[in-house]
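Hi team,

Below is the intake form for TonB-dependent receptor from Sphingomonas qilianensis. Please confirm the fields before the structure is written into the shared record.

FORM ID: S-0412
PROTEIN: TonB-dependent receptor
ORGANISM: Sphingomonas qilianensis
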Amino acid sequence: MRTVSSDRRLLAGISDTAISLAALATALAVTPAAAQTAPAAQDAASVATPAQAPDDDTATPDREIIVTGTRIRTSGFTAPTPTTVIGEDQIAKNAQPNIFNTIAQLPSLQGSTGAATGTFSTSSGTQGLSSFSLRGLGAIRTLTLLDGQRVVGANVTGVPDISMFPQLLVKRVDVVTGGASASYGSDAVGGVVNFITDTRFEGFKGNVQGGITNYGDDQQALVQAAVGKSFFDDRLHVIVSGEYDHEDGVGPGDFGTDLAGGRDWYRATTLINTGQTNNGSPQFLYRDYAQPYQYALYGLINNGPLQGIAFDQNGAPYNFNYGSGGQPTGTGRVTGCFPAASFCVGGDLSGAPGSGASLKSSLERINGFGRIGFDFAENNELYFTANIAQVKTANQPSPGYNRPNLTVQCANPYLPQLVRDRCATAGITQFNFGSSNGNFPDPHVQTDRRQYRFVIGAQGQFEVGGSTWDYDAYYERGTTLSDIDVDDIVLQNRYVAATNAITLNGAIVCADAAARAAGCQPINIFGGAAPSASALAYVTPENGPFQHTKLKQDVASLNFSGQPISLWAGPLSVAFGGEYRREFYEVTGDPYGAGVTTISPNSADYPADPVLNSTLGSNWAAGNYKNGSGKYDVYEGFLELNVPLWKSTAAGQANLNVAGRGTHYSTSGTVWTWKVGGTWETPLDGIRLRAVTSRDVRAPNLSELFAAPTVTTLPNFNDPFRNVGVQAFQNTIGNPNLQPEIARNTEIGAVLSRPSWLPGLGLSFDYYTIKLSGVISTLSADQIVRFCFEGNQAFCGGFVLNSPTQGGNFINVQPFNLASWKTSGFDIEASYQWRRPLGLPGLFTIRALGTHVREFLVDAGIAGVDTVDQAGANNGNTPNWKWLATQSYDNDAFSLTVQERWFSDGVFGNQYVVCTTGCPASTANRPTIDYNKMKGAFYVDIAGSVNIKEGISLFGKVDNVFDHDPAPSPQTNTGLDVNPALYDTLGRIYRLGLRAKF
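The structure came back. Fields below:
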């Protein structure tokens, strides 16, 4: 691991040790989608009913009404866009070490990323990144705000990391489940998640909690504290908060099927491609304990007359145990197995790397936040906020180094004499060899994200022509510095040089003289003997893959809201404003990964080496980070109106809400967004109807526009124009000509809120449909060339295949506005509160939230590729049904809550045709399979708290009480077959903590 310079350190001196306690808390309590106007922050003893809270017009402690999903700030206004509001008390009761985990449980949030996702990846840069995805549309299509303001992204996709927010000061979270681009701009296609902080907090509050899983891992420790104080007759307000969270993470396991902590649910479940497409049998078979037959833990000869000889830990040869009763053929295939997939079933799985990935990244986050506000006049404030945070994560993507295609010389002095003799008998001088290299150190990925965010602004009121107007102006400067380091990863050409050993002057050395001169040390790959320190230093140098990214965001915003005139049914409400935004990024990779054409190599850390490709880079087995940069500017303005239509006892009250926004991107020009909606408070007791339709956009992000290029060698790429194979380089790059994605959102709903005949009841139902066109997606190199060959000129400018020298051939693989998506379904929310149940003091609350995904159609936009419905495909993010329910009892002495989380059974993919015999022809669009079911899951959480004395409570929680295992999510490779975006992969978790507020 390289030495990190001082400018890459943040908040040094923080101890890695924190108090480790555990957490049981009352579960999530959520106000219904009927929510729109924000309630005041409330104590547990005075929580309004879920139907009541969203429509309560009580002024907030900030002396303003903030309504996410609209810019109208008017008491009594109910916007048509459904919004779920999660209050401060409910956040505290869920007792999660990261507020992200609480919000992500909502059924409308599908496909969010966190510490348990992305752990199998080396190069994605999203390990441990906590970001929300609404409606399964992806985090890049969900706009996340802090106090209604944008937050600088945590990576080049532009999504922020919730772990960096000042979580103890959050008094509520608004989740808008509908398009809001006309109000807030780009990215609000799936909706908006807005964190509202308590900007007038006074006093002290703190929280200490810890946790551990049933398997003795993922030990957690969280310490939070906040102090607020007013000065100068309540005109100066100062708030400071700090947080430290340490989570050990889970994993990794080992080779084979052994997971971390004794978890026993992994079975190496795989969809095996039989290669049979038209013989009446299914093409794909669902099988447990699938064994790849090209490699073994300490080496396997996988082709030629010696195929099937493996090596044990001591380097002794033995006959490998293939599954399925398989026998090697000497041609690389194995009888009784599946050559199209190179799998057997059963046998020796000791070298399979799937279970060796981390189940959850370790995570350490430090957050410091401060706010100073000064009331320079009544109802007018100048303020400054500073948020400095650091999040560090670590994970193991896989164990050892999986190399299935090495050529080994029979003269290799490390090869046992018995095998050398068999080489001579067979008349061969070399053979093909595959190994998991179980004697190699395991690679580890460390990320270090630091965020510096500063905001200066003014908000308040002024009078014009007898009308009161609200204003909100701010300037934000945000900077994220992100580093990714990969340790113990292999330089592939050095590995090949080190394994090609000879005897020279009585010593075993590397065969390549140039490699020897550059420091090559030989490695014995036959058996489990660990390579020497010098050999490992050559193959896996201390200075491994590295990426440094700088992201900058500047935002200047000015908004006004008021009621200039009164109409026949009430005042006309108006909001308007403008915003300027600049996004910038720059990324630098190490020379071995990036190449030296764009960066000068550091001779000390990355010395020149003749066996490495210095021009193209891409020398590492994984983590070949490239260099790049890009920026764009955004100018936009909006206007929103709320027009009262009628108000009477006989007809109720109705309003029309319309908004429009013009946005100019420096990269793609001008785009327009709008919304039209309305609500009708019917004369029927407690019944309100609402509807809204909108045109929303997502502009291409920095990564899609200006991605740092990556280079992959294609040694025998087919040129269809000449029908020959050529060596070409695949350049994966951004596309600066991308256009914004365009969405059409429509929602229609009904709300029953506080009827006089049952005032504790709240119900809501909302139907939604989202159509997204111009979805940014990427084609393969083969598709790009083939489409040009078939006459589509749009794809002909990005490749060269007839260069005079093979080194000049290339194909640029870049994203295009190709695909279209359509999803529809409905949300249901129900709640009831019962005060003094059965005569007992306190409050009994029942709440349930459900989302049904009726369809999620994905049209790739490629000729010959059918549209696929991903609704109910549980290896993705959108199960057909997803529910969250809570039942809680609270009084002055204690609270108790039971929570249920459930999603429905599904399939691996709706494109499959299930059959066992008499199958139709299997095609790319409709492949045949023998089994296509993927069970859902039902989780139960139990929580409680006891009030020790006024302001101090002891709380605890058990998540996943019954330790429910995840269902397999089989792929067609040997990865860890699980879907952590949907299933709980950690098991039962215990938490305990102490909370204080004075």
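SUMMARY LINE: The chain has a mean pLDDT of 89.

Thanks, M.
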